[in-house]
Automatic annotation (TrEMBL):
Protein known as: Chaperone protein HtpG
The keyword Ribosomal protein belongs to this UniProt entry's keyword annotation: no
Compartments in which it is found: Cytoplasm
Molecular function via GO: ATP binding; ATP hydrolysis activity; ATP-dependent protein folding chaperone; unfolded protein binding
Stated family: Belongs to the heat shock protein 90 family.
Keyword Nucleotide-binding: yes
Job of this protein: Molecular chaperone. Has ATPase activity.
Amino acid sequence: MSTAIREETLGFQTEVKQLLHLMIHSLYSNREIFLRELISNAADACDKLRYAALDNDALYEGDSELRIEIEHDQEAGTVTVRDNGIGMNRAEVIENLGTIARSGTAEFLKQLSGEQQKDAKLIGQFGVGFYSGFIVADDITVRTRKAGTPAGEGVEWHSKGEGEFTVADVERPAHGTEIVLHLKQDAREFADDFRLQSLVRKYSDHIEVPVRMPRVETDKDDDGTPVEGSEKTVWETVNEATALWVRPKGEVSDDEYKAFYKHVAHDFSDPLTWSHNKVEGKLEYVSLLYVPGRAPFDLYERDGARGVKLYVQRVFIMDDAEQFLPLYLRFVKGVLDTRDLSLNVSRELLQQDPKVEKIKSALTKRALDMLGKLAKDKEAYQGFWNTFGSVLKEGPAEDFANRDKIAGLLRFSTTHTDSATQDQSLADYLERMKEGQDKVYYIVADSFNAAKSSPHLEIFRKKGIEVLLLHDRIDEWLMSHLTEFDGKHFVDVAKGDLDLGEVEDEAEKQAQQETAKAKEALVKRVKEALGELAQEVRVTHRLTDSPACVVLPEHEMGYQMRRIMEAAGQPLPEVKPILELNPAHPLVERLEAAEGEAFTDLAHILLDQAIIAEGGHLDDPAAYVRRLNGLLTA
Ligand SMILES: Nc1ncnc2c1ncn2[C@@H]1O[C@H](COP(=O)(O)OP(=O)(O)OP(=O)(O)O)[C@@H](O)[C@H]1O
């Protein structure tokens, strides 16, 4: 029996307490996952030891046969999960089993509502790990020792999951970790051979480390009667214990792929799709990439986990190797196993190795092809797009070489459907282009409604020309990196001169020129009245219902991007708009007939209204109100 020394009682970090409470409550109907989580951690610990032992064989302490053992005691109501992996020292135990060290955790926990089903989904997204033991146990003891440390540096951790835990130093001859779960009364069903075996097969077949369970064998005499006292325990490997990605594609079932995904991604729910490839030749690697069914909670966290699990010749090297996929594919999870890197590769070395770039470019293509295939299933792709679309939109800016491929995967709201759902591809748009149209038109606004109702769309609606309605924060950034698709240029309808190309016939163009000439005097007067407030005034034919609109010069940064940058504290040089007037509108006719102060007021009102319609803020709103009231009461 070990004697505990240096025993101390510590409180769980607040986030752990909250997580424990919510997890126990919301995952009640999915309790069996605790075993998957503990085996998954044990397998990771074995992987880590194998990696550490590459440099220092002594860490195995003479026991290099890595394994996981699961035992139970029906009478005592306990289940034990044991591994001879890397183990933990005292400081690691306190850190790993007392806190949650992931940024964004507190905000994540705030989203939990107390509604069982909703929370179960959210918690799955977070990953419950070790703490899931408390779904089935009311008392957990962990005994562990870090490989390579003296037997006296073992640690015992104990908790009832109620806010505090104790840690003490104990003597521990074997390195690795042992977790003893004392099952709650209503979870005793898990202390059962058959139940445990079937769970191990369900969740851990794909794990390369053998998961073993004890079986008692008894010698029999010649008559077949068991010999008393001859009982001995033999350990039987229950899982298949081959790395899933090494197996040929045809021999792996969908269920196995899905189970493996859950291990790799620490996710609860099924992946949307996957792509498994073995490459031989100049580069030699196996990759298994997955698209998750939902976003991890830290998708937009700067230091959120991303990247693949890296193996070199089947030896685990590191989690989250982010060098093999671009940032805009950070939602892709999976495994890369290669012969092209050396076993002692580190994060720093990865950054310098030219082979890494080559593999990255190959994996990027694989991932984009996988999305291309997924896109054939409209419904599934829509699910993907709604979850990860705004991340993929970072692609054209980050990955010039694959711009066209990424553009083909984008989905938009457009005037064709007039719905906020982004479900139209550029290929759909091209198919519907009007005869003579040679450009892809788009508008960027702060919200879908602002885009949909923009005065800039009036002429397009009248002529039946489709316009992409962009309203995500990232959209203007996206469009500044997308210049063409399939040979067709993109044109922002709120910038520069309106040119509808061949869609307008000669007669229309002639009429426009004549109107512009006829209104030259009006334009001059308005410009004088507005002074520096507008850089230019002109008549337009882009409006049918509105009296006026503002546009920006073609190469000027758009309003949406300006507002985002200003909100981020980046001062920008002021840019004055171009005011365009609709000569056929009664207000503009009235303006033309006005004189003196009435003219100046109305000119200002038209400019201010156009700025408001575009989603901008007025520099002097009170002046606008005063002028408008003057007009209304005249
Ligand atoms: N059997 C084990 N052997 C060694 N270390 C372990 C073991 N189980 C857990 N740990 C350590 O405790 C940490 C926390 O485990 P936990 O399961 O809570 O989270 P995780 O595995 O990092 O992520 P997730 O919550 O997504 O599963 C692990 O990262 C690991 O360092």
